[in-house]
Amino acid sequence: MAKTLFDKIWDRHVIKQIDGGPSVLYIDEHFIHEVTSPQAFAGLNKRGIKVFRPKQTVATADHNVPTLNQHLPIKEELSRRQVEALKKNCAEHGVELYGLGHPFQGIVHVIGPELGITQPGITIVCGDSHTSTHGAFGAIAFGIGTSEVEMVLATQCVLQTRPKLMRINVDGELQNGVVSKDIILYIISQISASGATGYFVEYAGSAIRSLSMEARMTICNMSIEMGARGGMIAPDETTFNYLRGRKFVPQGAEWEKKLAEWKQLYSDGDAIFDKEIFINAADIEPMITYGTNPGMGVGVSGHVPSLGEINEKEKASFEKSLNYMGLQPGVNMKGKKVDYVFIGSCTNSRIEDLRMVAGFVKGKKKANDVQVWVVPGSKQVEKQAIEEGIDKIFEEAGFQLRQPGCSACLGMNEDKIPAGKYCISTSNRNFEGRQGPSARTFLASPLTAALAAITGEVGDVREYVKPSRDKAQEVLSEN
Q1: Could you tell me which residues come within 8 angstroms of residue 88 by beta carbon, excluding any fewer than 6 positions away?
Q2: Which residues is 231 bridged to in the sheet?
Q3: pLDDT category, 228, cuts 50, 70, 90?
Q4: What is the C-alpha end-to-end distance of the chain, expressed in Å?
Q5: Which of the residues 5, 53, 322, 467 has an alpha carbon 20 to 30 A from that of 331?
Q6: CA dihedral 180, 184, 190, 196 (to 10 degrees)
Q7: pLDDT digits (tens, 9 = 90+) for 186-197
Q8: Which residues contact 448 (CB under 8 A, 6 or more apart)?
């Protein structure tokens, strides 16, 4: 019987199927952090039990940590208490912790892949919705709630209902200056922020296969923003070349054995999906959001929809969103002034993203009235950026390179956008107050954000980037 990639992995991990109910799913890797784990550990301690398989749990501090002066004691009380609780819990339960000061510390969805913990064919969970990022490697990866974190710590299993399956095919050549963030923002704008609710999505097609691993992670990361349970991409030579030699990836004969297994991870040619969508890559232009959910996006050459373009049932929420954003129906996005630029988050904080931005801004200066924060996704990314001189390029451009953490993506720490200010952000969400109380967020790609940092307004990178035969996601060093 023909199977999808999802089916092949899911079926291998079902321990028990409950009649008329969910599956008991075995979890290979469990990532935890300082925000959603304290309550779960408290539950274990109350019951007097230990973590069942601590070697399959990896912890890091990322969500609420400061991104300046990480060598000093944490000033913010909640952050300090959360990080101290994580240290204590990991020590008591024998869980590996990559905390502040550790060379592997960073955003959980950045360090998993770069360390080679994330591998094809496995199941991965974390108390964070953007765990879908890891699906870029051909893994089933999804976020879980705090009670489920406790369940996995206690049993290495989780109760999970089998989702429906969707495949989104993106074929053809991308326009110059269009990158993976534009692809996923375009998809979400087409199907809406709830268009994949109840589904697990597989991304396929020639445009997807042409992407680097870091670009694929960006796409899978934002699957959750269209309501999907997760997203995944079948592993291929790009995947295997990325993983080869990484710290926790098997070596020698074991590598060859794993490689043979991984090469069987694909959807069979006659596999059936519950829903299938086809997209022409040439239709995608650099994207920008204008509202308060990731589905409210348009091409940068476009405009905020007029009231006549909005479904009658959606007009009230549409007008509420525009009122929050301080925008009018029908207004052009191009030329809209911005106050802050945030380059970071588990969506776009990897070395490739920083290289892309550095290649664009080299030799340029930021606009005088714009503040620019660049927050690397991990200590390894930060180290590599310094070794490559990217930090100097940012310094000369007037950008502030901070230290690793989730930062202004969710504004849990001190990295908040002031009320009423506009921030063009490479993060994944633009909800009301997401980046700070009354902050206004435009989601965009690293290239579009870099352009806004230089010009001080929303612009079209296609007017600035030289035509190239290189893949869109590669560093635009000629510019």
Answers
A1: none
A2: 201
A3: very high
A4: 51
A5: 467
A6: 150
A7: 999 999 999 999
A8: 182, 286, 287, 288, 300, 424, 458, 459, 461
Q: Are 347 and 427 in contact (CB under 8 A)?
A: yes
Give the orientation angle of helix 379-387 with respect to helix 390-397, to 10 degrees: 80
pTM above 0.85, yes or no: yes
Q: What order of strands is seen across the sheet that includes strand 157-160?
A: 14-17, 23-26, 157-160
Q: Comparing C-alpha atoms, which of 235, 223, 294, 290 is closest to residue 261?
A: 235
CA 287, CA 289: separation in Å to the nearest integer? 7
Q: What is the pLDDT of residues 149-184, one digit of tens each?
A: 999 999 999 999 999 999 999 999 999 999 999 999
What gap in Å lies between CA 93 and CA 104, rounded to an integer?
20
C-alpha 72, offset from chain centre: 28
Gap between the Cα atoms of 374 and 395, Å rounded:
11
Give, in degrees to the nearest 5, the angle at Cα 14 between 13 and 18.
165
| Residue 349: Cβ within 10 Å count | 31
Instruction: Let me know: does 193 contact 303? Beta carbons within 8 Å.
Output: no
Q: How many CB atoms lie within 10 A of CB 469?
A: 5
Query: Which residues is 59 bridged to in the sheet?
Result: 32, 97
